[in-house]
């Protein structure tokens, strides 16, 4: 086993001061305050269902992840309600938009259109494939609003091309852009190798499940412990494992707590490696 990445030995609370970006600071503050490294992905197709899931899981999470383009009755009133809940229940909103175009186009996709993502989402993400202009375009909209950006350095799906030198180049692109807007990565591993003193990135990993090992469409799952302890990720992102559980309202709430407990236990265990 190689030595653990130094960032994984620091408590979330000690990493707050290493970030200037307000969204990154808020995420770490919430994680520390609520003792949770769980993000729930609310991949349902109506606003009523989405708000219901958020109300059930809100107390257990540091973040709620959305795909606003799958919600058939999306309105800005819904977004405002989500923002209200994010304040009441203390979590950050992450619109998983996976931008992937030239800077000018993504700046419009982020600020305008039906969804006006930048107006309500604290965090969003982008593929690195178009080059650094994508960061500049999104930053021109998001930075003045205090928003944050993650780059997709790796993916959880089988056969992903985001591996090896693609992942390395993505990391380099983030470093080149600076940490005022890019705050971390969607990745399966601690891709921030050779970090300098005070250089801190948030690693968020989807593809997390306690029961299932995958789906029929290439998704691959690992347990919270594998993700947080073995691979050193900071946040686990869970979708169907929580909102898809059978058994009604209480079951969803209980399952979120179960993932929160597992994720936190793995984090405490990794701190003990010192
Ligand atoms: O590599 C990735 C990146 C993301 S953001 N793999 C993923 O699965 N995701 C997202 O995480 C995906 O779009 C979905 O919203 C969530 C995983 O959902 P689950 O139901 O499989 O847990």
From TrEMBL:
SUPFAM superfamilies: Ribulose-phoshate binding barrel. SMART domains: OMPdecase (SM00934). Signal peptide: none annotated. Keywords: Decarboxylase, Lyase, Pyrimidine biosynthesis. InterPro entries: Aldolase_TIM, OMPdecase, OMPdecase_AS, OMPdeCOase_dom, RibuloseP-bd_barrel. Pfam families: OMPdecase. Belongs to the OMP decarboxylase family. This is Orotidine 5'-phosphate decarboxylase. It comes from Kwoniella newhampshirensis.
């Amino acid at each position: 086993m190689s030595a653990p990445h130094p960032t994984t030995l620091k408590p979330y609370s000690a990493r707050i001061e290493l970030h200037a970006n307000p969204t990154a600071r808020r995420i770490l503050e919430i994680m520390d305050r609520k003792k949770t490294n769980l993000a729930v992905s609310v991949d349902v197709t109506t606003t009523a269902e989405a708000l219901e899931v958020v109300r059930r899981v809100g107390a257990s999470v540091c973040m709620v992840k959305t795909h606003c383009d799958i919600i058939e009755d999306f309105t800005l009133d819904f977004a405002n309600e989500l923002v209200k809940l994010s304040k009441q229940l203390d979590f950050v909103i992450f619109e998983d938009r996976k931008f992937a175009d030239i800077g000018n186009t993504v700046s419009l996709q982020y600020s305008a259109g039906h969804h006006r993502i930048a107006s309500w989402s604290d965090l969003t993400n982008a593929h690195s494939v178009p080059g650094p202009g994508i960061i500049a375009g999104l930053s021109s909209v998001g930075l003045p609003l205090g928003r944050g950006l993650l780059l997709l350095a790796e993916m959880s799906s089988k056969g992903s091309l985001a591996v090896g030198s693609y992942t390395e180049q993505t990391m380099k692109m983030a470093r080149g852009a600076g940490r005022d807007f890019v705050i971390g990565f969607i990745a399966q591993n601690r891709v921030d190798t050779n970090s300098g003193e005070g250089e801190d990135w948030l690693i968020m990993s989807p593809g997390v499940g306690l029961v299932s090992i995958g789906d029929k469409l290439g998704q691959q799952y690992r347990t919270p412990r594998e993700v947080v302890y073995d691979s050193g990720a900071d946040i686990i992102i869970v979708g169907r494992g929580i909102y898809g559980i059978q058994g009604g309202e209480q079951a969803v709430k209980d399952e979120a707590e179960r993932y929160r407990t597992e994720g936190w236990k793995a984090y405490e265990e990794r701190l003990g490696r010192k």
